[in-house]
Amino acid sequence: MEKIVSLCKRRGFIFQSSEIYGGLNGAWDYGPLGVELKRNLKNYWWRVMVHERDDIVGMDGSILMNRAVWKASGHEDTFTDPMVECDVCKRRYRNDQIPALTPFRTLAHILFSDRDGNVREECATVGGESPKDVRRKARVQSEYFNLGWKFESVDLEPGHTNDPARCCPHCGGEISEPRSFNLMFKTYVGATEDESAVTYLRPETAQSIFVQFKNILEVSRKKLPFGIAQIGKAFRNEINPRNFTFRSREFEQMELEYFCRAEQGIELLEYWKEERVKFYENIGIAREKLHARNVPDEERAFYSKGTYDIEYDFPFGRQELEGVAYRTDYDLSQHQKASGKSLEYFDEETKQRFVPHVVEPSAGVDRSVLALICEAYSEDEAPDEKGKLETRIVLRFHPRMAPIKCAIFPLLKNKEPLVAKAKEIVGLLRPHMNIFYDESGAIGRRYRRQDEIGTPFGVTVDFETLGEKDAALRDTVTLRERDSMKQERVAIQELPAILRERIT
Ligand code: GAP
């Protein structure tokens, strides 16, 4: 992950938000390449979920909604995570992020010297994976007792070890009992900051789909089963954002609410699970790193009759990319009850009126972008200008996802006819795809720079292109493929068609 995070910053995929002020935990900015990657992902999702289907329409809802929405949906009362706090360093964690039991716990006598050089002793209960780990953590604890004092040594009291408990992963201090923490960001609408003005930044995009269900049904004149899709920002005040962008406080979701009859629910849950796994394969994620986990009863929301988590093997472990949940008629029924407005569907054939059920594939944009980068990252060897093998970093993005599709290089930048021809090719390709022109440095270096950001194709304009060596080769270029590094000679006018076919 360290290599990936550093590449993301170095090449302009992802930066820490507000970096020059020390950052903001759980918020990230996408740079010039990151934003292209993210857009390619969202556009492809929209293409396969909305444009290529007759049964799904899109919407774009507001982030701020009437507080009543969050009361009816249950978020105000139950969208919580159990939180615990370390008694010593006061760090806060989600309860499930603390290992159930810490094998070693003991009373530590920590010696340190104060600013005047006097040696002082503090006692604290410390826990960890091993006595060595406990000793290290005891040393960390001294920072919290006396800032600026110098750590001297630690003695662990015999007899207290092997007394398992839950301890702080950072300093080994004792952990409090869990309490509920609501993950929604609270805000005020208008100039008065009182209870009547309270609402929240949406923690999921789904609710605006449910509350607009009737309007969209009427204007689209769709028949069941049909879906409403949305891509947009969501906000959760995560207790402990971590693993780069994986768990953030501000992120984007791509959600589909697919409405159906009750008897179609289970079958459609299976259908969408398959479709969604295929989607990840089609953006270049290896099938063997994808897992559809059938979420057991005790982990599912009480109203869900079945849920799959689509998981990916990230470098930091197997983690959720997307949830596919059969949510029954819970959401529409809740909003119907709370608003007093009918959210029923009228079946003209059977003359029945009922609240539809819904299957929801809900994906995270940022998590999918992170999975794309992790999947693409690779190192191999390639010859430098002198033929010596050197390590090559390559992002092996699927061409469909790559931020830049093709780079165009004149062999030499001081040969006017080469530069003019290369710029002509830029003009030819630009209407079809995102391209990049580069004339600086040795050609090998230029290839390497593009490999590192995952550009799948490189076009080089050389003396053959000018017809100087062989008239038959006039107006042809070399087309280099990133992964195999193989080069083929193609006619310039065929480039748009060849490349378009390979990148869509
Ligand atoms: N409407 C259902 C819903 O929001 P969820 O499982 O809470 O379900 C769906 O979220 C997806 O949103 C997750 O699978 C994940 O990809 C993404 N997501 C959720 N919380 C996130 C966070 N803190 N940071 C980044 N992505 C997150």
Low-confidence stretches: none
The SS-based structural class is alpha+beta
Number of strands: 26
Ions, cofactors and other ligands present here are: glycyl-adenosine-5'-phosphate
Q: Note the overall shape.
A: flat
Proportion in β-strands: 25-35%
Tell me the strand order in the biggest sheet.
3-12-13-19-16-15-14
Radius of gyration: 28 Å
Helicity, as a percent range: 25-40%
Count of DSSP helices?
A: 13
Q: Assembly state here?
A: single chain
Could you characterize what this model shows?
With 504 residues, the protein is of the alpha+beta class. It is 28% helix and 30% strand. The chain contains 13 helices and 26 strands. The chain has helices at 2-10, 32-51, 67-72, 75-78, 131-145, 206-211, 213-220, 265-282, 330-339, 365-376, 416-429, 443-453, 495-503; strands at 14-16, 28-30, 56-58, 80-85, 92-94, 104-113, 119-128, 150-156, 179-182, 186-188, 198-200, 226-235, 250-260, 290-294, 306-314, 317-326, 345-347, 352-354, 357-364, 377-383, 389-395, 406-410, 435-437, 457-461, 476-481, 487-491. A 7-stranded mixed β-sheet has the order 3-12-13-19-16-15-14, sandwiched between helices. A hairpin with a 2-residue loop joins strand 15 and strand 16. Helix 2 (32-51) packs across helix 10 (365-376). The longest helix has 20 residues, at 32-51. It starts with a helix and ends with a helix. The relative contact order is 0.11. The mean pLDDT is 93. The site of glycyl-adenosine-5'-phosphate has 19 residues, from strand 13, strand 16, strand 19 and helix 10.
Can you lay out the helices and strands and say which pair or pack?
Blueprint lengths: L1 H9 L3 E3 L11 E3 L1 H20 L4 E3 L8 H6 L2 H4 L1 E6 L6 E3 L9 E10 L5 E10 L2 H15 L4 E7 L22 E4 L3 E3 L9 E3 L5 H6 L1 H8 L5 E10 L14 E11 L4 H18 L7 E5 L11 E9 L2 E10 L3 H10 L5 E3 L4 E3 L2 E8 H12 E7 L5 E7 L10 E5 L5 H14 L5 E3 L5 H11 L3 E5 L14 E6 L5 E5 L3 H9 L1
Parallel strand pairs: 3-12, 22-23, 22-24
Antiparallel strand pairs: 1-2, 4-5, 4-9, 6-7, 6-8, 10-11, 12-13, 13-19, 14-15, 15-16, 16-19, 17-18, 20-21, 24-25, 25-26
This protein binds glycyl-adenosine-5'-phosphate.
